[in-house]
Amino acid sequence: MKKHTKKFKRVKRNIKNKVRRKSVKSKRVRRKGSKMKGGAIPPCDKNNPLSINDIWTSMHTNNFEICGCAMRLNHAHKYQLFQNGQGPAKPPAPRRYCQTRLNYGIIWHTHPACCEVPSKLYPSTEDLLKVVKHGSHTSLIFCQYGVWSINCEQKLTDQQVISEIRNVIELVVKETLLHTNNGQDINNESLNFLIDNIFNRLSQQGLENYIPSYKIAFNFWDHYQDVLKFEISDRYKAINPNDHFY
Ligand SMILES: [Zn+2]
């Protein structure tokens, strides 16, 4: 039997994707009216406002992650952060995490830069998948040298598609950690490596079609400009935390 050519495989794949996309759509229609995953987004609960300085202090003193929701006040480009969660300390916990109470529109969490075992400067696989799987459209991650912003408007429910996307992300995250001292070094090359590889591989596998608005961004804190050897570009800006967060 003749072996399938690359082109044939690609065509086959595209057909498969079309069929899948259809089924994702029909599922979404069926879900309407019932319990909708991508339905109403709960308003941020404003019990515990935090300033960016509070975040900074927590990141450098607490052995655990804190998390919550955020709002943009008066349509300004500045975020007001509210805390409503706290994770376990590592050690003794084997890994840090923090879960917000609900799937708010904008969520955030910290990656502690202190203590015996500092957290990685990179998002985890689950951090990168959150906005694809759950209601939130924006996830901010505060780390020592800057802030990650992960966005996605589309919400997936098809477990097969989610797991294919997870496989891609997991592998790229693993490869990134291998050449960044287990996530402790960060620079333009490592950022390009993580972000470009995720997007190239998702698009090679036709998975980008499911999440066309998916975006990963990182901005350095400007006070590290002279300490770190990073190039400021349109892609990775040096930002003053006080200009972007209350
Ligand atoms: Zn995280």
What would you note in describing this structure?
The protein has a domain at 43-156 and 212-244. It is built from six helices and eight strands. The model is unreliable at 5-38 (pLDDT under 50). The longest helix is centred in the first third of the chain and has 26 residues, at 6-31. The protein has 246 residues and is α+β, with helices and mostly antiparallel strands. It has an eight-stranded mixed β-sheet. Bound molecules: zinc ion (ZN). The site of zinc ion has 6 residues, from loops.
What is the structure about, briefly put?
With 246 residues, the chain is an alpha+beta fold.
Average residue-wise pLDDT: 85
Could you tell me the radius of gyration in angstroms?
A: 19 Å
Helix/strand-derived category reads alpha+beta
Q: What is the H-and-E element order? A: HEHEEEHEEHHEEH
Task: List all distinct small molecules, including ions and cofactors, that are bound in this structure.
Answer: zinc ion
Tell me the number of helical segments per DSSP (H or I, 4 or more residues long). Answer: 6
Characterize the overall form.
globular
The portion of residues forming beta strands comes to 15-25%
The tally of strands reads 8
